[in-house]
Amino acid sequence: MYIVKLCNDKSLLTTKYTSIYQGETGVTTIDFFIPKLIDNHSLTELSCRIEYMLPNGISNYIVPEKDNGDYGNYFLLHWTIPIELTRQSGRVRFWMIFEKLPEYNLVTSESYFDVEPTINIVNSISINDTITEEIDKLKKTKADSITINNRQEITLTSEGKLIGDTIQINKVKDLDE
């Protein structure tokens, strides 16, 4: 759990944090406690977005989910961290914007969380799974045995199971004719 409080001076203060690891998705939620009033402006009636910048410099924004619970002089917003923010390790910077254009636009200070690097074993696991699946497909579709029975029929089998059509030898025409 990650908790950030918006202070009356418009700074973002992290009061509780947890590690966020590369490749995680939907695991960590940042809860924002927002005062209902700042400078006599009701923030509950304003639209809010969280803008962020990834370690590679790419920026975007999200609209946090509002919690309808009673938190006294505060209201609560949730931001569940998606895979797009944890694909690479490094510092993710973010800030909040509350607005009701054109009359009011409040921008908070910047804050951040670090995405900790992990050993990337996901790709090797998925490659191994893909190779295993392809081998299983080949086992089911590629012949490992050819037989001719006493009725002059040629059959192909894979792991003891018939694959393809049976060919009657005496019905095969000479290709040179």
Give structural notes.
The chain has 177 residues and is mainly β. It has 2 domains: 2-116, Immunoglobulin-like (Sandwich); 122-168, no CATH class. 14% of the residues lie in helices and 49% in strands. The chain has helices at 83-86, 122-141, and strands spanning 2-6, 12-16, 20-21, 29-35, 37-38, 41-42, 47-53, 59-62, 65-71, 74-80, 90-100, 104-107, 111-116, 145-148, 153-158, 161-168. The strands form 4 sheets. Strands 3, 7, 8, 11, 12 and 13 form a 6-stranded mixed beta sheet that branches. The model has no long low-confidence stretch (mean pLDDT 86).
**Number of β-strand runs:** 16
Q: What is the ordering of alpha helices and beta strands? A: EEEEEEEEEEHEEEHEEE
* Unreliable stretches covering 5 or more consecutive residues: none
- At the first level of CATH, the class of the largest domain is Mainly Beta
Strand content: over 45%
Number of helices: 2
The biggest beta sheet is recorded as: 6 strands, mixed
Number of domains: 2
* Structural class by helix and strand composition: mainly beta
**Estimated helix fraction:** 10-25%
Multimerization state: single chain
Indicate the radius of gyration in whole angstroms: 31 Å
Any key phrases for this structure?
2 helices, rod-shaped, Immunoglobulin-like, about 180 residues, six-stranded mixed sheet, mainly beta, 16 strands
